[in-house]
Amino acid sequence: MLVLGIESTAHTFGAAVLNLKGEILSDVRDVFTTVEGGMIPKLVARHHEQIADTVIKKALADAKANHIDLVVYSRGPGMSPCLRIGLAKAKEYAQAFKCDIIGAHHPMAHLTSGLLFTAAQDPVMLYLSGANTQIIALEAGKYRVFGETEDVGLGNALDKFARALGLGFPGGPKIEQLALQGKWTELPYTVKGMDVAFSGIITRVTQLANKGVSKEDLCYSLQEVFFSMITEVTERAMAHLRKKEVLLIGGVAANKRLCAMLEIMCKARGAKFFAVPMQYAGDNAAMIAWQGLLEYHAGRRETTLDIYPFERCDDIDVIWETAKAPLSK
Ligand code: AMP
Ligand code: MG
Asked: Could you give the angle at the alpha carbon of 166 between the alpha carbons of 8 and 198, nearest 5°?
């Protein structure tokens, strides 16, 4: 059985082909970037529309797939104009291959592909992407959110500061580079119970940048504060849930300083730290194909083909028995 996944929630338009063994036969992506400024949904959607067929055809060719048994699209959450392009393309290719089509929840795909790509069994999952910051664990049949951001996602907060510095999108990697040359300057720290808040800190670093404090020092201090906040709530979730593993997923997982802090915390607790491989940390279609396959294999069929820009992972019933490969047939 061959599955074609299509990802289009935000900056990345991707297509990938995967089989029941969880083997990725192809994975093609084209990412919207800017030199200055951020993501304007209409412009991102135009980018996706222009490159969609090239990306999908390359994924089919790379996989040497002349038939497809299931098409999976990323149904949300995400930017509506971008989600619509993914759905339209999924319908078009499902019709061409005369096969079924199913929608996958994008954050759930990050979670279950994290289990596919690592040896983690029952971790506290730390989902840190552009738009999302959540501490999640599987408890009583659902992936439940134990802590989250009260305002913007961690990646978007970094991107916002990078934009203020005129660094372009995505900002996270640029901040990570500048931070290597920086030293500590005092910043606020906002943990509220199990939740975190980033916006006020971004306002403060932007004020300090306008007053002439060095970019390097601000990037260093911003990373130290943000990642300490995240590490603190993750540790508390582990203590409450009595879990002995952490799995880091989402684009911010590419950050080496963040991984180092989480490693230190895990080591001190006798726990194991896993991060999704760099290549699959950000948005990709292989994870969408895997999530769709898990649900299809567990018997779910799509009744309404639609987009869901605001759906949360705790809305979804976990009907699949395992997220580990291989699936039986
Ligand atoms: P995603 O939405 O999961 O594709 O992740 C994209 C987000 O990850 C963007 O906000 C990026 O700025 C952020 N990101 C990517 N690489 C890094 C990095 N090395 N350090 C921090 N953030 C990063
Ligand atoms: Mg994502």
From this structure: 70
- Check residues 58 and 131 and name the one with the higher pLDDT: 58
> pLDDT (tens digit, 9 = 90+) per residue, 119-167?
999 999 999 999 899 999 999 999 999 999 999 999 999 999 999 999 9
Question: What residues does the ion ligand 2 have nearby, CB within 5 Å?
Answer: 129, 283
Please say whether the beta carbons of 157 and 163 come within 8 A: no
Domain boundaries, the chain: 2-110+281-322, 122-275
Which DSSP symbol is given to 140? T
Q: Count how many Cα atoms sit within 13 Å of the Cα of residue 12 in the half-sphere of its side chain.
A: 25
Question: Computed over its alpha carbons, how large is the radius of gyration of the chain?
Answer: 20
- Is there a contact between 222 and 203 (Cβ–Cβ < 8 Å)? no
Class of the CATH domain delimited by 122-275: alpha beta
173 lines ligand 1 (CB under 6 A): yes
Pocket residue to mutate for ligand 1, from 220, 252, 284, most atoms within 8 A of Cβ: 252
Tell me if residue 299 falls in helix, strand or coil. coil
**Is residue 329 over pLDDT 70?**
no
Are 124 and 238 within 8 A, CB to CB? yes
Superfamily assignment of 2-110+281-322 in CATH? ATPase, nucleotide binding domain (3.30.420.40)
For residue 128, the CA-to-ligand 1 centroid distance in Å is 8
Q: Helix or strand or coil: residue 291?
A: helix
Integer angstrom CA distances of residue 186 from 207, 215, 222, 305 = 13, 14, 9, 50
Total-model pTM: 0.91
Burial class (CB in 10 A: 0-12, 13-18, 19+), 213: middle
